[in-house]
Amino acid sequence: ETGVTQTPRHLVMGMTNKKSLKCEQHLGHNAMYWYKQSAKKPLELMFVYNFKEQTENNSVPSRFSPECPNSSHLFLHLHTLQPEDSALYLCASSQDVGGRPRREGYEQYFGPGTRLTVT
Amino acid sequence: KNQVEQSPQSLIILEGKNCTLQCNYTVSPFSNLRWYKQDTGRGPVSLTIMTFSENTKSNGRYTATLDADTKQSSLHITASQLSDSASYICVVIPDTGRRALTFGSGTRLQVQP
């Protein structure tokens, strides 16, 4: 186990539903991330939170809404999704130093992911 | 165009055999490079990390090499086991101060008995 948990592990939802993905890290890290992994594509960074503040949003559609209530928890709220949003959604955490990633030993720890299917 | 290209896309080998996976990148400036192993339905787990000054690093049966001049890295797996069946992802960390990693699409390795 990496110390990052995600729930649910699998989710099937219709295009009109509203659901939320949850991520929790037990590593004492100060940065958390959401990634999307589609089949045969590289991981796509969606959002970055550092000390609970969103620091990056990589042009993600507004139907994805992140929430970071504290440094240990991260949510991804979903509404009116499209079938092409079906993918594995991965959460990760890391320990940033001074707001910048360390040159050596920089590492993101990933959760097991939520397999999302939009019907 | 993705800045990290991996080859082959998929590979099937017999248990006990060796194999080498390739990663070419154009990310610059470059801080370090990492290989991840991702089992089906799981998140990626780090295997090795290499800074631009390192040429080789081993982790058990996994050996990663890096040529910063040609911007190439390889992951060599020795005496493969069935549990090595997974996707192997090359990740380059740019030296820009941003947290974003640049991921390759991965090589899907299947080890058969």
Please summarize what this structure is.
Chain A is mostly beta strands and 119 residues long.
Key features of this structure:
heterodimer; A: 119 residues; mainly beta; seven-stranded mixed beta sheet; four-stranded antiparallel beta sheet; globular; B: 113 residues; six-stranded mixed beta sheet; five-stranded antiparallel beta sheet
Question: Which helices and strands, and how do they pair?
Answer:
The complex is a heterodimer of chains A (119) and B (113).
Chain A: E1 4-7, E2 10-13, E3 18-25, E4 31-37, E5 44-50, E6 53-57, E7 64-70, E8 73-79, E9 87-94, E10 109-110, E11 114-118
Parallel strand pairs in A: 2-11
Antiparallel strand pairs in A: 1-3, 3-8, 4-5, 4-9, 5-6, 7-8, 9-10, 9-11
Chain B: E1 4-7, E2 10-14, E3 19-25, E4 30-38, E5 45-51, E6 56-59, E7 62-67, E8 72-77, E9 86-94, E10 102-103, E11 107-112
Parallel strand pairs in B: 2-11
Antiparallel strand pairs in B: 1-3, 3-8, 4-5, 4-9, 6-7, 7-8, 9-10, 9-11
Distance between the termini of chain A: 31 Å
The dominant shape of chain B is globular
Structural class of chain A, by secondary structure, is mainly beta
Number of strands of chain A: 11
Strand content of chain A: over 45%
If helices are DSSP runs of H or I spanning 4 or more residues, what is the number of helices of chain A? 0
Low-confidence stretches of chain A: none
